[in-house]
Design a protein that fits this description.
By secondary structure, the protein is of the alpha/beta class. The protein has nine helices and ten strands. Bound molecules: S-adenosylmethionine.
Length: about 280
């Protein structure tokens, strides 16, 4: 992730109240702040963050989506859709497509990406835990790098809401940022520095610098960057939280990223296994 200065956005751009006709949800820690932060980064999101659907990325979620039978009869929701990189694949294929994000500026970018196809999509400017009116209606829920609220109480509440939004034979497909992949990158950076002849203390400093450790809380799995505070996940936590939220089956896989200039030292690590995020398929 690269640090860039970004322009601010009006606080009023983030919805504070539930829409008329929907039950208001209680105050959720960090929601307003993080909603605003995501909103203000919408304009430059695509240049600041890695895209899990970029052609060079191996993403098992795409095959899982292709495997959904009779998509024209199904409702799919892209939860935390952001600027909408997944939406073009869903529009026109699934019978009903919901694109949800609590940052209106993200939804505006997603609409612009879709052009005329946006007319067939239901856009929801709200938080992902606020799904009461979708209870039991979704065949497929998707969350790609959007289960990132830094407070795990919000994550647990969101996962319970997603579980409740699914039909009994529905499926939840997700990608979450991998904390252990940062440890892996650190190991490779450390080995490289030692191979270059640095003393251990200096090698550690170099690895920490290039691995951008100043942005991470490794113990609690968090990443803080440009005002965004994001949860990073260990694989055991993916299983733990999905099971705790009531999912009966959880299968993990990896989204694999090419070694390129977006990761420090990428060119030197081309012979090593690729870095990853965690993907999962969870069933109620
Ligand atoms: C890292 S971006 C990923 C966007 C998109 N899914 C993608 O693959 O590019 C995270 C997105 O999730 C949204 N988001 C994060 N937490 C959310 C929440 N609790 N409710 C609704 N949207 C949320 C943010 O506004 C942002 O657009």
């Amino acid at each position: 992730m690269r640090a860039q200065s970004v322009s601010g956005t009006k606080k009023s751009d983030v919805p504070e109240q539930a829409k008329p006709g929907r039950k208001a949800v209680g105050r959720v820690p960090g929601l307003q702040d993080q909603g605003r932060q995501w909103n203000r980064h919408a304009a430059r999101y695509d240049e600041l963050f890695l895209d899990a659907f970029h052609p060079g990325v191996e993403n098992p979620l795409l095959a899982a989506l292709d495997a959904v039978p009779e998509p024209a009869r199904r409702t799919v929701a892209d939860l935390g859709c952001g600027t909408g990189p997944l939406l073009p694949r869903l529009a026109g294929r699934f019978g009903r497509v919901v694109a949800l994000d609590f940052a209106p500026a993200m939804l505006a970018r997603a609409k612009a990406r879709l052009g005329d196809a946006a007319a067939g999509i239901i856009f929801e400017a709200r938080a992902m835990h606020d799904l009461d009116d979708y209870a039991g209606q979704l065949d497929v829920a998707v969350a790609v790098n959007s289960l990132v609220m830094p407070d795990v109480r919000v994550i647990d509440r969101t996962l319970r809401a997603i579980r409740a939004s699914l039909r009994p034979d529905g499926v939840f497909l997700g990608v979450v940022p991998a904390m252990d992949a940062i440890h892996y990158h650190t190991m490779l950076l450390m080995d490289r520095a030692l191979d270059q002849g640095l003393a251990p203390e200096e090698a550690e400093r170099t690895a920490a610098f290039h691995g951008e450790h100043e942005y991470y809380d490794f113990a609690f799995g968090r990443f803080q960057f440009l005002g965004l505070r994001q949860k990073f996940w260990q694989p055991f936590e993916v299983r733990h939280r999905l099971t705790k939220a009531g999912f009966s089956s959880v299968e993990l896989d990896q989204v694999l990223y090419p070694w390129d200039e977006s990761l420090a030292g990428g060119a030197d690590f081309a012979d090593h296994p690729r870095s990853w995020d965690w993907s999962f398929v969870a069933r109620p």
